[in-house]
Amino acid sequence: MASSTPRRTFSFVQLDVFANRPLEGNPLAVFPDARGLNDSEMQAVAKEMNLSETTFVLPREGDAVDHTYRVRIFTVEEELPFAGHPTLGTAIHLRGNSAAEQITLDLNVGKIPVTFEERTEGLFGEMRQRDPEFGAIHSREDVARAAGLNVNEIAEELPVQTVSTGVPFTVVPLRSLAAAQRLRVDAARSAEYLERSGGKFFYFVAHETVNPEARLHARMIFYGGEDPATGSAAGCCAAWAVRYGVVPGGVRALIEQGVEMRRPSNIYVRADLAGETVSNVRVGGFAVEVVRGELCLV
Higher confidence at residue 3 or residue 189? Predict the structure, then answer.
C-alpha cells in the first residue's frame, strides 16, 4: 500500500572541483535550496551522497542582490566550519551564467569571498581564506611514529607545523616524490596524535612533482580513505610555503593532488608576505558539472 505521507524532493548537482574535465578533481554534491532539511537530515543526506563533502544552500531574501549565500558543509561523518573544494565548487555553481565578479559564502567559519575570472579553460574561481594561524611545530620523530613513516622520509630543512585558515592541518614535508607515492598512513595512530596535538589531518607535501608546472605534490589521507583535492589544507600549505620560502610571497603556485587516486587535481594557491606576517591566502581552480538529479524523501 502506498504511503500517504507526501514526498519531499530536493534538487542537487554534482561537480568535479579543482578540475576542468569531468571525472577528475574532487567530487562535490550541492543542494541549491536545502530549506526544509533539518540538521540530522543534512548529515544523513551527506552520508547518502557518500562524497567527501556535500553542501547545503539556505536561500535568504536578498541573496541575488548582494551575492551572499548561507551555506553549510557536511562530510559523511560531521559538519565542518569550512572546507576548500566545497566553497569553490558551490560558489562556481551559484555564480552560474551571471556576470557577478564575486560571490560570498556565509559559512560557519565566517564569510568567505570567491572572485571569478573567465579563461579559455573555463570559469576560474579563487577564494580568499582567513588569515593563517601558525600553531605547534612538531618533531619529525613524533610525526613519523604517529603516521607510520620512516623518519628519514620527512624532510629536515622545513618544519612540520600545524596551520589553520579555518581548519587546522599539520603540514608534513616529505623528502621526495617517491616517499609521497608510497605513503601508507596509520589512520588510528594519526588520529590519536592529531587529537592531542591540535591538528585535524596531516597534509603531506613533496617538492618533486609529476607535472613539471606544479610547485608541490600533495596527499591527504582521512576517514580511512584519501581526498583527491583539499582546498582548506592547500590554503594552510600556501601560508606555510610562503612563510618558509618554498613559494615567494604573492606568486601563484600550483599544487597537484589526487594523482595516486587517478583523480588529478590542480589547486592554485598564493599568499602575501610582509616581514614574518602571512596574509591574503587565496586558493583557486576550476569546476565542472557532471550530474543533476533529485533526492526524494518522505
Answer: 189
